[in-house]
TrEMBL record:
The lineage of its organism: Bacteria, Pseudomonadati, Pseudomonadota, Alphaproteobacteria, Acetobacterales. It holds the Pfam family NUDIX. Coiled coil: none annotated. Belongs to the Nudix hydrolase family. RppH subfamily. The gene is rppH. CDD domains: NUDIX_Ap4A_hydrolase_plant_like. A motif (Nudix box) lies at residues 39-60. SUPFAM superfamilies: Nudix. This is RNA pyrophosphohydrolase. Keywords: Hydrolase. InterPro entries: NUDIX_hydrolase-like_dom_sf, NUDIX_hydrolase_CS, NUDIX_hydrolase_dom, RppH.
Length: 156
């Protein structure tokens, strides 16, 4: 496992005007798996540009402005049963640059149906502190860190 590299990735914690965050349900796993929008970083791509591109690709809108950033890159490792399967079998996990963003659109702007092969089949607004309990276990440490780092933007 340690011989495989981490995939470089950006992630978005998208806050609405009430301080809730957008989470989306993956449509490619058997169990309910909720997560924040995230996606691969192209070679040479600026992470701040990439996070807005990923939002547009994954949730159908880039109507957002960056309001915060985790200084560090956060890593997670895939569990043993997903190694060689998830992430096309080429990575041990992901190293992620996370951003907090303020949603500047309306709920109607969020369109999961625009991609011919959507990653998500549902979305909802959630409280930031809920995130570590909602996501799959191997992502919990990263989501707990996000809840701590971005608490200042969240609903009270």
């Amino acid at each position: 496992m340690t011989e495989l590299p981490y995939r470089r990735n950006v992630g978005a914690v998208l806050f609405n005007a009430e301080g809730l965050v957008l989470i989306a349900r993956r449509n490619d796993v058997a169990t309910e798996a909720w997560q924040l929008p995230q996606g691969g970083l192209d070679e040479g791509e600026d992470p701040r540009v990439a996070v807005l591109r990923e939002l547009a690709e994954e949730i159908g809108t880039g109507r957002a402005e960056i309001i915060g950033e985790v200084e560090d890159w956060l890593n997670y490792d895939l569990p043993a049963e997903l190694l060689g399967k998830a992430l096309r079998g080429r990575f041990r996990g992901q190293t992620q640059k996370w951003f907090a963003l303020r949603f500047t659109g309306r709920d109607e702007d969020i369109r999961l149906d625009l991609d011919p092969h959507p990653e998500f089949d549902a979305w909802r607004w959630a409280r930031l502190e809920e995130l570590p309990e909602i996501v799959v276990a191997f992502r919990r440490p990263v989501y707990a860190r996000l809840a701590q780092e971005f608490a200042r933007f969240a609903a009270r």
